[in-house]
Amino acid sequence: MSSKKQTDVSGGDRQPEETPTF
Fold first, then answer.
1. Distance of CA 16 to CAs 3, 8, Å?
2. Contact 2, 21 (CB under 8 A)
3. What whole-number percentage of the chain has pLDDT above 70?
4. Residue 18 region, left (φ>0) first, then alpha (ψ -120 to 50), else beta?
5. Which pTM does this prediction carry?
6. In the prediction, which pLDDT does 6 show?
7. How confident is the model at residue 7 (pLDDT cuts 50, 70, 90)?
8. What is the average pLDDT across 6-19?
């Protein structure tokens, strides 16, 4: 889990295409 991915999860609607990991 990179910090970049964590930022996406925090944003929520940052990049829905890279959220399938969660």
1. 16, 8
2. no
3. 0
4. alpha
5. 0.11
6. 58
7. low
8. 61
Using CA atoms, how far residue 10 sits from 1, 20, 21, in Å, is: 13, 14, 13
- Cα 15 to Cα 5, 22, distances in angstroms: 9, 12
Taking alpha carbons only, the member of 16, 18, 13, 17 closest to residue 5 is 18
Could you tell me if 19 and 8 are in contact, meaning their C-beta atoms sit under 8 angstroms apart? yes
12 Rama sector, left if φ>0, alpha if ψ -120 to 50, beta otherwise: left
Residue pointed to by tokens 């890279």: 18
| Type and span of the H or E element at 4 | helix 3-11
